[in-house]
Amino acid sequence: MMDLCLTSVDKFYGENHVLCDINLTIPGGEFVVIVGPSGCGKTTLLRVIAGLEQIDDGTIEMDGVVVNDLPSASRNVAMVFQSYALYPHMTVTENLAFSLELEGLTRVEISDRIDEVFRMLSLAEYGDRKPSELSGGQRQRVALGRALVRKPKLFLFDEPLSNLDAALRMNTRIEIANIHRTLGTSILYVTHDQTEAMTLADRIVVMRRGRIEQVGSPLELYNDPVNQFVAGFLGSPAMNFIDSDLLSVSGAAIVGLRPQHLRLATAGRLKGRILHFERLGSDTHLVLDVGRSAPVIARLVGQQEFGIDAPVTLDFDDDDALWFDAEGRRVGPTT
Ligand SMILES: Nc1ncnc2c1ncn2[C@@H]1O[C@H](COP(=O)(O)OP(=O)(O)OP(=O)(O)O)[C@@H](O)[C@H]1O
């Protein structure tokens, strides 16, 4: 396990300020997921921690030691890339053995470690194959195995499941959660996938334009976001943002309502016309034109039929509404 601490970290690519005043402490053993829009600096953050890029200001400490100038190989971290980055000319076993040979481990130690990882990831039968002879899911497991076999103090995962189909993603997600439970190694994990973020993370870091917007447990961020950006980023379908005038709400410019918190009502505060509806089996998504705000989505439980263009009225509990000012800052209600 490793305690990781980033203090006032800045990173530029030319004029581009890619990481701006990053402050983040990750105690040993924690599973931290980083989310944010494309280009916000997630991968760069992993790369500076791995030592693959230098920072321009601030400090990175591992177990209390500043590692700013420590080369990647000496940082005791292992990174798993979205692209797998396996050596194509080597077999699976050779891919796993490579870094251990560089570390100077004996043949017996290497084969013990590889056997352990093969068991963990059910890879034993593929040991003699080259990466080109494996499916995408199997290659991904080899990439995971290559990180695991090194027994690092910190894993850095950069969208490791993004090339897998939905079923494999779920299986591998469960595998990663199990590995974390078993080994207790700290993990920093970048993803675009909401489900991965919500289900795997002890804490989620939400980034925007090189800055950290909020850090907290998945449900803290979901229930108590500091601003409209975080509120809109987590949750699917996304939170609705409705002009407060339309709802006769005072004290806020914008009211945030999650789709599942809107319900059909004979007398309600939100009136609109049906633009579209989607039958999902378990739920029905209703898309409404409510006038000045963007279309509003309501998630209704069960299977329901509607007429396009029909008028509907929706209502909500005041406790479920989040208030934002015109700049998108959260202004209430205080929790
Ligand atoms: N080697 C590089 N040289 C110059 N600019 C770079 C380099 N790598 C990344 N950038 C820029 O830095 C910014 C952050 O990139 P980064 O890859 O960290 O974003 P990201 O959040 O991981 O994006 P994505 O979700 O699309 O992978 C982007 O504007 C990108 O164009």
From TrEMBL:
SUPFAM superfamilies referenced in this protein's UniProt entry, alphabetically: MOP-like, P-loop containing nucleoside triphosphate hydrolases
Annotated ABC transporter domain residues: 4-234
Origin: domain of life: Bacteria
GO cellular component: ATP-binding cassette (ABC) transporter complex, substrate-binding subunit-containing; maltose transport complex
InterPro entries on file: AAA+_ATPase (IPR003593), ABC_transporter-like_ATP-bd (IPR003439), ABC_transporter-like_CS (IPR017871), ABC_transpr_MalK-like (IPR015855), ABC_transpr_MalK/UgpC-like (IPR047641), Mo/tungstate-bd_C_term_dom (IPR008995), NA-bd_OB-fold (IPR012340), P-loop_NTPase (IPR027417)
GO MF annotation, one: ATP hydrolysis activity
Hydrolase is among the record's keywords: yes
Family membership: Belongs to the ABC transporter superfamily.
Name of the protein in its database record: Trehalose import ATP-binding protein SugC
Organism: Boseongicola aestuarii
Lineage: Bacteria, Pseudomonadati, Pseudomonadota, Alphaproteobacteria, Rhodobacterales
Gene (UniProt): sugC_1
